Amino acid sequence: xxxxxxxPLPPEDELVARLTRGLPSSARTHIGPGxxxxxxxxxxxxxxxxxKADAMVEKVHFNRAMxxxxxxxxxxxxxxxxxxxxxxxxxxxxxxxxxxxxxxFSWVEALYAGLSQAAVLWGxxxxxxxxxSAPPGAPVVISIALTGEVREKDAVLxxxxxxxxxxxxxxxxxxxxxxxxxxxxxxxxxxxxxxxxHYPPTAMMDLSDGLARDLPRLAAAGKVxxxxxxxxxxxxxxxxxxxxxxDGEDYELLFTLPEARWAGLAKAWPGAFRGLPLSRxxxxxxxxxxxxxxSGGWDHFAPG
Amino acid sequence: xxxxxxxPLPPEDELVARLTRGLPSSARTHIGPGxxxxxxxxxxxxxxxxxKADAMVEKVHFNRAMxxxxxxxxxxxxxxxxxxxxxxxxxxxxxxxxxxxxxxFSWVEALYAGLSQAAVLWGxxxxxxxxxSAPPGAPVVISIALTGEVREKDAVLxxxxxxxxxxxxxxxxxxxxxxxxxxxxxxxxxxxxxxxxHYPPTAMMDLSDGLARDLPRLAAAGKVxxxxxxxxxxxxxxxxxxxxxxDGEDYELLFTLPEARWAGLAKAWPGAFRGLPLSRxxxxxxxxxxxxxxSGGWDHFAPG
Lengths: 304, 304
Prior knowledge:
The first copy, chain A, has about 300 residues and is α+β, with helices and mostly antiparallel strands.
């Protein structure tokens, strides 16, 4: 393929920033592009609406050697993880499939079986969708649109971290591909809902592209810096600290909360979520103080 | 490409029917898969929520020779047309793009410019989205998730046609590709909203795959038949009656209303929408009475 050298796609964060600058917004839009989900204020509704789209592309996010049921489950899990990271609950999903003409129907049926089982598990209604053909050989695309709901006082944004807050992560990081975690993880829905009730985070997001890429996003949103204690990173079996930073697809919660609340949280957590690590991995500093500087992580549009 | 002869994708309607059978639903879901949009009843909300996903795939729905701004406009217009066909108004959209690595950034910027202009035109807020890379040479995919709202008493479903109702279509049919209509049409948003206020249709849908494919869908939803007067089809310049039936991408409203209301509608219409034809093209009959039998129209998964 000829590559357009003079006009290439920029790195993912820059691409999104340039495309979403100055987009027309609706009066109902409480939070637009830039967080894990959009937040919409629906007239009369008891709760705020969360709205998320997520796509998985064959040969980028999955391949045909993987179980199609697991691929379907993961497609929904990724979107549910974003709803969770705002403190919300998922509601209804629409499933869009782009199917090359040479795809066996049994593959699509198994994908839907995985989607359906996952939907039941996480309380999602599958309200419809769309299928389109694609030329033979084109990658399969699975695009999910998911709504959610959250009480206004419970909604947690990326931007709320304050200087001195401690930086906390659920579960373990790194080695998500070799371990199979990337395909069979469970979104931290119950954990996030428990947190917003008992120890409300000041900021929260889910870790999808690796801590090295996602922490700077959380810091940029809050106009703060960080001090990360690399020795405290919770490593998945077989993962090095470098992999915990950059492998991506951890789907754990990264959140901040006031220093004074950490001791209480650390004490209450094991009673609520036995066996699931909760790790304090650093603290929030003033903007410009970044220790260590971070780079790497997953960039969709990085030169290959 | 090797084609899977023993397990091929079935035709589009059968594919969707088989995939959406028995899907888990949410208690809030008023209308699930099978209509132009899903309808969700949000607790406390003043209005019902409409929810639609639509995708356009390069080499199937568009190509790089077309203006990317026009492609972006069309992507949103198609989803708005579905919201219109339920009698609703569009609210917020999420834009998902799958971008092969060899795509020039200027193409994506122009696409977004077209999307933004269209969003302003039809009162849609662009609340965010998702971008993913794809292997070089993969088709660009544009997937739109769009919410809308409609008063419960105004919502028009596909299934409400009754024996004796007359069958009506807005605008002109056929030749949508050569004429450029498929790319620059305006969704019948104002027309549909006027209809639900003044002459509520008993059933309505938008014509995207051609009357020959879409009328049987409306009839099947209502468990009725049809008598179509082929000599009354409103033909776009250059279109034959056969093309008006099967070309597709007309994006006009197909609706039914009680016979007794037709005269009043036909009289009031030109004052509301000067220059836009409104044609009575037949009537609804008992199930099993189909005159003429219809076949053809656009099928995404038809053997090529």
